[in-house]
Design goal:
This protein is mainly alpha-helical. About 75% of the residues lie in helices and about 0% in strands. The chain is rod-shaped and about 105 Å long.
C-alpha cells in the first residue's frame, strides 16, 4: 500500500480495511443464516409431511379393510327388507394432525398441497354426512331417502380412499419414499 501512503491518510486506510472486513462478515453471516433457515424449513417440511403420511395412511388402510361396495349392498339390502331399519353410523375423526398443522400447510411443495387439501376436504365431507346420518332428520325420512343418503355416504368414503391414495403418493414422492413416476429412467427402447 506504499502507493496510497502519500495520497490517503493511514487512518483512512485502516478504516477502509476494517469496513471491508465488517462488510464481508455481514455477507458471510447473512449467507450462513439463510442456509440455516433453509435447512430448518426443509426439516419442518419433512416433519409435516411425515405426520400427514401417518394420518392419511391410517385412514386409507382402515378403508381398505372393508369392502365398501359389499358393505353398501348388505346395508341397503337390510334397509330395503325392513322399512324401519336405520343403519348405525359411527362418528369418525380423521383430521387431528391436519387440524393441528393447517397453519403450516404453506411449507408443503405445490405439487403436494393440492392432493392433500383435496383429501382432507373429502374427509370433511364424510364427517358432515356422518352427522346427517346420525341426526333426527335422517331418522324421520322415508326409507328411499335414507337409502339415498347412505349411498352418498359410501360414495364419499370411496372417493376419500381414492383421494387418500393420491395424497399419499404425492407425499411419498416429495419425501423421497417413493420414486417420482414422471421422472422415469430411460430404458433400452428410449435410447437411439
Amino acid at each position: 500500500m506504499a502507493v496510497f501512503d502519500n495520497i490517503i491518510d493511514p487512518r483512512v486506510q485502516q478504516a477502509v480495511v476494517g469496513g471491508l472486513f465488517v462488510a464481508v462478515g455481514w455477507v458471510y453471516n447473512g449467507h450462513r443464516n439463510r442456509l440455516r433457515e433453509r435447512r430448518r424449513r426443509l426439516e419442518k417440511m419433512q416433519d409435516v409431511q411425515t405426520a400427514l403420511i401417518a394420518e392419511i395412511d391410517h385412514y386409507v388402510v382402515t378403508l381398505k379393510q372393508f369392502d365398501l361396495t359389499a358393505t353398501w349392498q348388505r346395508i341397503v339390502g337390510a334397509m330395503e327388507d325392513d322399512d324401519s331399519y336405520t343403519p348405525v353410523v359411527p362418528s369418525e375423526r380423521n383430521d387431528t394432525v391436519f387440524s393441528a398443522l393447517v397453519a403450516e400447510i404453506h411449507l408443503l411443495p405445490e405439487e403436494v398441497i393440492q392432493p392433500v387439501v383435496g383429501y382432507y376436504n373429502q374427509v370433511f365431507a364424510v364427517d358432515a354426512i356422518i352427522d346427517d346420518l346420525r341426526s333426527d332428520l335422517f331418522r324421520e325420512m322415508d326409507q328411499v331417502q335414507r337409502i339415498g343418503m347412505y349411498t352418498d355416504y359410501i360414495a364419499l368414503k370411496q372417493e376419500a380412499l381414492a383421494r387418500g391414495e393420491r395424497a399419499l403418493r404425492a407425499l411419498r414422492v416429495s419425501t423421497g419414499r417413493e420414486p417420482n413416476p414422471s421422472s422415469r429412467v430411460a430404458g433400452p427402447s428410449d435410447q437411439s
